[in-house]
Amino acid sequence: MSRMLVALGLILVAGGLLWSWLSGLGLGHLPGDIIIHRHHFHLYFPMTTSLLASAAASFILWLIGR
Fold this sequence. Notes:
By secondary structure, the chain is of the alpha+beta class. It has one domain (2-65). Helix content is 61%, strand content 15%. The protein is built from three helices and two strands; from the N terminus they run ααββα. It has helices at 2-17, 19-23, 47-65, and strands spanning 34-38, 41-45. A two-stranded antiparallel sheet has the order 1-2. A hairpin with a 2-residue loop joins strand 1 and strand 2 (41-45). The longest helix is centred in the last third of the chain and has 19 residues, at 47-65. The two termini are 14 Å apart.
């Protein structure tokens, strides 16, 4: 369990350091992300981006657990 927490922490630190580069890839503006703009109301729900991030995290954790 401790190895998995350390690995998760390192992944989060790496993601934070690479955030500006990762935002240039267009994540967060994919087809399937829900954006609603109304008068004085903005809703942004990154459904597709969340699914991709979840799949990537699951794959990385699967590799670590092997």
